[in-house]
Amino acid sequence: MTAAVEADALVKTFGDIRALDGLSLRVEAGTILGLLGPNGAGKTTAINVLTTLLSPDAGRATVAGHDVVEQPALVRAAIGVTGQFAALDSGLTARENLVLFGRLMKLGRAEARRRAAELLERFTLTEAADQRTGTLSGGTRRRLDLAASITREPAVLFLDEPTTGLDPRSRLALWEAVRELRASGITILLTTQYLEEADELADRVTIIDRGRVVAEGTAEELKRRVGGAVCHIAVADAADRQLVSETLGTLGPVSVLPDGVSLPATGPETLVAVVRELDEARHAGLPIARIDDIGLRRPTLDDVFLALTGHPATPDAQADGEAAASDEAGRPARPTAEVAS
Predict the structure, then answer these.
(1) Angle between helical axes of 138-149 and 168-183 (0-180°, round to 10)
(2) Which residues pair with 10 in a beta bridge?
């Protein structure tokens, strides 16, 4: 298959911080790549390099066949970007925002209005068309932001944590919009802090940590690397999770997760052994707190994270230098074909 995005040994430093440390990745045309990594892994820095907002210190990258350093204007003309913060004018209506983006991308007045109407219909925004953007719900604003990013149908769309902060219903609606964009032939590079989002949307997943790739493949391939089923014990309190972990240590390697404790399972017999161990510990006077749930499940991308990086996934908190490419208000700039060139 043809690569729509290709990066080879990218390096980017910010003082003593090496945000990208030889990062290499490939996104096949017409697919969705999920780019995952823990806090400060370099995900947003990678997006900023690939969208020409930052120049790499070393390495090479191409987007839609164009070199990000030598041909930045051609790259910008071929891409759309939805960053972590909506790049919309809250004082304008939804329709006016889309018309504005069309005009910035050198569409004529009539064409910009026609394209705005088309996008409002496509993203189910017609009822919000003439409302000021600042009054819209978070989910509606994110759909509007996504619509603006494809004002000119891009070859490649970069989505940097597009559903952060959305309620479940809004997230599902945005997922469906992303699937439709892929079906239309757009290549998508998606960073996300929600591992189930990558599981649902991505054709392939690349996990990075400390600026370099630690694993890549389909979600199922990565899960198989972790192993078979696991027994998960849901425990709310951190101190109690540690206590449960120590209690079950004789049954096998135990992983402490943000929502509980897990260990490899061979089948229902593991579940029986876990319940027996916890019950015996209680009878022995060990202060085991309330356990919310115990069950068997298949490995998740959370388990993959823990196995490959030594810690669970956490939200990207702008710890990997991405603020260097943000505007004065703290919102990442949206590169456009004409304004940025």
Answers:
(1) 20
(2) 23
Could you write out the DSSP letters of every residue in 64-76? TTEETTT-HHHHH
User: Each residue of 280-326: pLDDT tens digit?
Assistant: 888 888 777 678 899 988 777 777 777 776 665 554 434 444 444 43
CA 286 centroid distance within chain: 41
Q: Amino acid letter at 209?
A: D
Q: Is the pLDDT of residue 7 over 90?
A: yes
Residues 207/309, Cβ–Cβ less than 8 Å: yes
Comparing C-alpha atoms, which of 310, 309, 331 is closest to residue 322?
A: 331
**Taking residues 60-84, what's their average pLDDT?**
95
Q: What is the pTM of this model?
A: 0.74
Q: Cβ distance 97 to 133 under 8 Å? A: yes
Closest CA to 178 of 304, 161, 101: 161
Q: What type of residue is 203? A: D
CA distance 233 to 251: 13
Question: Hey, what are 263's tokens?
Answer: 């260990």
Tell me the C-alpha distance between 303 and 226, whole Å.
7
Cα 35–chain centre separation: 6
How far is Cα of residue 65 from the mean position of the Cα atoms in its chain? 24
Return d(Cα 51, Cα 139) in angstroms, integer. Answer: 24
**Phi and psi, residue 205, nearest 5°:** -125, 135
C-alpha span between 45 and 54 (Å, rounded): 8
Closest CA to 326 of 119, 92, 117, 44: 44
Q: Which of 313, 337, 296, 317 is nearest to 35 (CA)?
A: 313
Dig out the tokens for 19 from the structure: 């945000």
